[in-house]
Amino acid sequence: MGLVSGTRLGSYEILALLGAGGMGEVYRTRDTKLNRDVALKILPEAFTLDGDRIARFRREAQVLASLNHPNIAAIYGFEDSGSTHALVLELVEGPTLADRIAKGPIPLDEALPIAKQIAEALEAAHEQGIIHRDLKPANIKVRDDGTVKVLDFGLAKAMEPASAISPMLTASPTITTPAQMTGIGMILGTAAYMAPEQAKGRPADKRSDIWAFGCVLFEMLTAKRSFEGEDVSDTLAAVLRADPQWNKLPAQTPQAVRRVLARCLQKDRRQRLADIADARMELDDAAQPTPVAGAGMRRGWIPMVGASVLVTAAVTSMSIWMVVRTRASTSPQTVRFGIGPTQIEALTLFRAGADRDVAVAPDGSFIVYRAGGAQAGSGLVVRMLNQLDAQRLDGVAAVGAPFVSPDNRWIGYFVAGELRKIAVKGGAPVTVCHISGAPRGASWGDDGNIVFATNELTTGLLVVPATGGVPKELTKSDPARLVDHIFPTVLPGGRGVLYTMRNVSAVGDAASDVAVLNVRTGESKMLVHGGTNAEYVATGHLVYATAGGLSAVPFDATRLEITGDPIPLSERIELKASGAANFAISRSGALVYVPGGGSRNVPRSLVWVDRQGHEEPLNAPQRPYSMARLSPDGRRVALQVDDPEGDLWIWDLTRFTLTRFTFDPALDNMPVWTPDSARIIFNSTRNGVQNIYAQTADGTGSVERLTNSPHPQFPFSITPDGTRLLLGEVSPGTGADVRQSLLKGGRDTEPLVQTAFGEYSPKISEDGRWMVYQSNQNGQFEIYVRPFPKVDSGGWQISTAGGTRPVWARSGRELFYLDLNNILNAVAVETDGSGFRAGTPKPILSQAYYSGFNLGAFDVSVDGQRFLMIKEPTNPSQQSQLPSIAVAINWVDEFRQQVQR
């Protein structure tokens, strides 16, 4: 149809034509609502004349939109404007893989990471029953940072008609690029990448994608197609009868890669690889350096997730002892081990804090991390690397962003509006200063000062003496452009401070840049675009996070300048939606990190569990769910999904559909339904600080801001009459408190329970007379009830041995909560005219389900007989994605050898 620049299609403004083909025209477009650029694929005009086909396409597009993976270009929506129909897609910058191949064969060390990411994208889609059908280099983009994005996933199937196509869309006698759309039994795709079954007009399955993957990998390594011909007929004949020219492969191609290619390109699909995960694992092996005969371990990168959990603590400690004994060697080996999710003091990933959860001592003698997932008041754990057991620090709860002093004696952390420190050996915590806003990193300099940051846009980096004092501003942020200064790292000697410039209105790599402050001149300059959480290492490099992995770049620490090109590293790390990267490097050369996506990528499921423990799946697609709230009418579930987008979703229990509810690039959390099920209240960082917003549950209308506070706020419950919201607020001095706000008539809040302790998760009973909440006023979290709204007129402790996350039964005659082992407990209550009485708590489920940090990880059915739970993965491949900590001793020596090659 041809759209010119400036044309509007709904809320989308056409900027430029990006390309055209059989599947439609693609335009760079400005989303005027969310103020971001997207790709708009205008469907062919003839296609839109078939109403049944459009309806079928919508259904297929909804399934495709459920794909959420860092290597898959996302589908954001479907736009109608008159007779024009368009898909709203993620705009992926950078050349296609076809463009790269046109320059010549891709070196093996560059090709294998690309191939692995393609395989990971296919694996994620195949797990959801989605196949690509048209995989080829032109449908794959490689960004400048090395991230691969596979485009047009499953659109070939979505374009297919359910029956014979309209006569206006007759099948082309030739096959073009992009692929032409055809009817059932007709050839679909680009000839050179078709599997034999597709060339014969037979249905495609995931093994057809595996064939195409083999074709793409062969072409990357040789710059030649595996099957070629002068025309389409010759090409299809080669696909059906010829063999690839294996002698075109580079001589140094590893046997594992040759084996993958041979298995992918089997013409009989029964002999072909059955699962793309098998190809990915073979490529992992090919990426490993060949072990030296007699050597005790590989010196190259060893993936730690999953395998690390199998290493016993005794073997780990002996390995560490041997390294310490041989550290003076001229070429020390890198030893890697893992602290797995099955251990008692396991890592807790703190998504709400949007900061690091791990730290390492400068001398590499210990690590410190957040742990205690069964409690909202999770604390700090110190693991000495020459000891078998970890040690929890007493008196430390609900913490974030740990860091270590240069002399290895103190641990700094944030809690309840304060920056505190505690001795590594334990003792009473010491308050360094009060802070306003949520923490965004801290670094302890050699001069005895601590540089830290918060999420408040009005301040940049702040500095305070470690002995205590009033923080002073070190840099000026740019609130007008929504750019904050966060994640500081003080350079050795204190000459400069590395930090991240974060655009809170953007997502992905484009949101973050690494900068450096010259402490002597007060001037800052940008060093690396698309990076975050930079650390300096003694090799003269900056190591920083980008696209879920680590990269390094040469850096002159005297002139504070970049002196070379970036170098991608092997480690894949946990990267949060805020840009916080879970890794740390000691001055002694040890690397500590949370491998590959952590809990943000754990594919959890939703299940109903009755009082006998019987499970019934909801059949919602697996996602990294962290919060589930049932609507009062029992028809929908509002879900928090811990993925890089940080959005809320809704699962419809009657229509069996999962739809995205929020689209803002900011982090959206903690959904709460209004009593009439018409609106959802939630927390969001879309204006720089976590405040509370509302939107109609069907997604129509604009988002309404309900509160306006400089302090983080979290919604929990709404009174039955719909007039008041109960919320939590974290502020300096009093920490976490329970407050209330009118839902109409203003954005002010007033305190309900405000003490020096932490109060969380207030919930109102169905009759509006009682408020339940959790508090650590007795040293650990317990469940309490007070009258409402006169909360000071009485009070009762409900739990007897610790409890979190209380929920009322709709009948008002029971309370449910999780004990400190994460087991669901029930308490019978009576609330007649004589007051409030509670029975003895009793466990009603024997199995622990996911709780995480969020305070809404389960809910109760309307009749009170079933419980909506989030279930962790049960198969080994998915369990390997649970949070683990990887430790690499002498990692910097390994890195030095790598950059000197």
Explain what this protein looks like in three dimensions:
About 9% of the residues have low confidence. Helix 3 runs antiparallel to helix 6 and helix 3 runs antiparallel to helix 9. This protein is α+β, with helices and mostly antiparallel strands. The protein is globular, with a radius of gyration of 28 Å. 52% of the residues are buried. It has four domains: 91 residues, Phosphorylase Kinase, domain 1 (2-Layer Sandwich); 186 residues, Transferase(Phosphotransferase), domain 1 (Orthogonal Bundle), CATH 1.10.510; 313 residues, TolB, C-terminal domain (Neuraminidase, 6 Propeller); 270 residues, Neuraminidase (6 Propeller), CATH 2.120.10. The strands form 14 sheets. Strands 1-2-3-4-6-5 form a six-stranded antiparallel beta sheet, covered by helices on one side. Strand 20 and strand 21 form a beta hairpin.
